[in-house]
Structure formats: C-alpha cells, structure tokens
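Protein modeling request. Please complete all fields; requests missing the sequence field cannot be processed.
Requester role: graduate student
Desired output: 3D structure, token encoding
Chains: 1
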Amino acid sequence: MKPVLHAALFLGLAMPAFSATTTMDFDGANKTHDSILTHITEALQDSSMGLPENEANGIPSHRLVEIKESGEEEIIQPVKTLDGKDSYEFMPNAKHYWEFNCTGQSPKPWGICWSYTFRPAMAGHNHTSSDPYSYSFLNPQTNKPLAIEICKSGLPGNTPFQIHYKAPVFSTLVLDHFEYSGGCSGTYNYEDRVTVTARNLIQLAELVEEPYFNLKESPDQQSHPGNFYATPDTNSKMKQIAWEYYQQYNEKLTINDMGLIWGGRYYTFYPYNCWTDGQYHKFHRYGRQVDVRSSSVNTQQKRDCLKELACRYQVDPILEGKAPGSLLGRDVSMLSESELDVLDRDEHYHFNFTRPTDPSVYPADDQRKECSSYLPPEVSVCPKPYLIK
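Delivered output (389 residues):
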C-alpha cells in the first residue's frame, strides 16, 4: 500500500505519550524548505512499519475534530454527496485533527496509514496544463510532486492516536484515504471539501455577463477559468452599479476579478503554498469583493460619477495597484487584452461589498471604506442626474 500525502497540508503530527516521538512539526515556521524536507524524512523513518492483517481482533474507529479559534473543539459529521459518498466540509485555514482508535476486549497492537490527495481544479484552480485535475505541490529539489505517507504501527489497543493538521488557505477537493492494520483492519475513503460554503456560511452564485458590462479575458483565466463568483448581494449590487454607469455614458464597465467557485484564497505560491498568505487578491476569499478595470474610466468626471453611483449602494470604490491615478486621461482603446491586464496591476478599482451583518470569518475580510454620505449630492457630478434614484 503506497498512498500519497501532500506534506504541505500539515501543521503537525502529535504522538501520544507512549510513542518515542512526542511531536513532529510540519508547519514550516522559521524553517527553510530543505529543513522541512529533512523533518519529513526523519518522520517516515520512525513510522513506516506495518502489521499482518490476520492479527486483527478489534474494532476500528475514527472521527474528525475541528479546533475553533477560541480553542473549543467540535466533531465534524460527514455528509452524503450526490453520488452517496461520505464527505466532510470545512473552511480554508481551519485546524483539525483525525483521531483513530482500535477498541475491544484486549485488542492486539494496531497500526494506521493516512493519506491526502488534492484536487484543486474542482474549486477553480488550474495551475498546470498537463493534468489540472491532479495538480499537486512540487519538491523544489526534484521538481516532482511533494508527497508523503503518514503511518504508525505498534499502537496499544483502546488508546486513541491523533494526527493534527491545518487545511490550506485555498479551497480544494481532497481525497482522504486511510487503512488500519494489525489489531484492527479496514479501508476508508472520504471526499473532503475545503470550501467557504461549509455549513451554508456563504452561498456563492455565478455572475453572468450582461449587455451593460464585460467580463475580462486574460491569461489569468487559464489558471482560474471560473473567477466571477460572488454572493447574491454582491452580484445584484455590482450589476446595478454597472447598469447605472452604462445609462450615464453608454459605456460598459469591465469586471476584472471576483472570487472562485468555492471561495478561499485566490492565488497560491510555489512550492509551499498550502497555508502561505501573501499579496494579490488577498481579500477575494468570501465572494464579497469585485475588481473593476479603471483604464476605461479615464476622465475625472467618469470617476466621480462612478463613485457617486456606487456610494448609493454603500460601497466606496478604491483605486488600488502600484500607481493609483496613473491611467487618468490615457487612451487605451488600441491596447490588447493582455496589455490591459498589465495595466490593471498599476491601477484598478476595488469594490468591497462586505456588510456588518455578514458572518464573521477567519482570516477576516477587509473592512469596507465608508462613503462620506449615501445621500445624493445637491448637484450630481453625473451627466444624467435624472437617472439616479
């Protein structure tokens, strides 16, 4: 049996007191990539032995436990998928542990092997053209998938054994596999869904292109082919703002980026990018943010009008990028889509539709910048003020 486990997922492997090894740290804190690989190798040397299946005389059991930010623990119950399989759902960045046991009347020593396999393409990540469905993280030394198998044998019966880990910051489908040996036997497979829709926290709905706005097309679509997902509230307000802007100027706003189908971290970083946060769309996790191309909103009046329209929906569009304001007055009508995509990094509008009534999340969403007033100005800056409510 050679299951595969992506090491980047782990926070740590906690051993009970009877084990020679009390703690193994896989979180990568204050370590280089090389030392992480060294720690993994040492762990496997201590935990690769098995026991014959005919020794089984106990009953295997296991449960998945989530550790809340408050430190409280909650047992996660599996749910049935459409094809009848057991599945666990939890948020990105959540802390968990699997607890295994072999129970019975004087069960013989037992062992457990546990593995994970990522399927991030199911959640909107397509980071390789060769096999996007089985995309995995790479060992920087060998350029091959970084994978390990966590096994432990010689465990006393009726004594639980815990494996602690942390979910990645991005959403993904995870194929969860483990096998018992020795005093207990059994093979189990689950589909774990790392998604912000866990427990109906936030419902993501796809934004469909309308006659009054465009959805950008750029090389980024190859890595994230479905990046126009948001909450229903965000969708409806963004559509209304785009419609009112179109009525003013007979010009379409271009939507750059929103969120992925299951939410979670937008960009990941090679190679240890499971729980590594960073720059680039840091807050596009929960379907509440929208980036809008600013290069076509190229006059001060258009920009003032866009802000006036957006503020009526309690959203203050913020210019972001390397050089906010640099595209004002520039004619970009002859530029290609890829050139416009480069300009977006210099300047774009960020709309944050987060509301005080939205569920609390971890990591926290960005705080919305309030408009100075949601009342219409005495004299509208838009050319057709009669269209404004």
